[in-house]
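pipeline stage [seq->struct] | target=Methyltransferase | organism=Isoalcanivorax beigongshangi | residues=223
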Amino acid sequence: MPGYHTRKIDVQVGAFHCRIRALSDHMQFADPEGEAANAGICSASWSLFGQLWPASRVLAQAVKHIDIHNRRIIELGCGLGLPSLLLQSRGADITASDHHPLSEPFLDYNSALNKLPPIPYLDLPWADTALNVGKFDLIVGSDILYEGNHAELVGDVIGRIAADDAKVLITCPGRGYRNRLTRRLEELGFEVTETRMAFSEDQVAPFKGRLLCYRRGNLKQAA
C-alpha cells in the first residue's frame, strides 16, 4: 500500500478527453522516506499536488489551440499535469516540472492511462539558481502564486529559463500576489494582458480569476 488513497477523474477539455488519477481528498499524507520533508514540503501542503484544481482546467482550455510549432514548452508547478497531458496529445515539445516527489510518478501513470507517450519531467525547485534547464519559448502554470514569496520565485525562474522571444501563460484564481509577478516580469521586458475569467460554473461577473499573458521580444505585439 502506498500510504495514500486515490481516485480517477474523467476530464473533458473541448475534444480532449482523459482520465486522471488524483488523490482522493485533501487530507492525504504519506512521506515514509522523508522525501517531501527534504524538499521543503510540509504535511499541510503535501496533498496539494494531487488535486485537480479549477485553475488547471482553465489553463488546459487556454493551451488547447495555442501555437506549438517550433516551441519548447514547460509547465511550472505541474501537479497532476492536465495542461501537459493535453499538450502532449497535440504532439507538443512539452516538459512538465514540479518539486513534489510524487508528481513524476503520477504524471507517468496518467500518461500511460491515456495511452500517451511519457512526458519529460524536471524536478525544478524554484529557489535553485544553479540548475540549468535551457531556454523555453512558452512557459505555463496554473495557480502557482498561492504563497507570499511565490511571485518573486516564479518571476526569477522565468527570468532564467525564458527565451528572448517568449510567452508566459499563468492562470490565477484571484490571489493577491499576481501584481508582484507582473512587476517582476515587466522588469525583464515582458508586457502583460489580463483576461478576467470564471474558474467555476457558479461564478458571475466581474470575475476574480485571471488569465495572465506575458510576452517579450518579437511576441510583444502578437495576438
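stage status: PASS
auto-comment: The two ends are 49 Å apart (CA to CA). The chain has one domain: 6-219.
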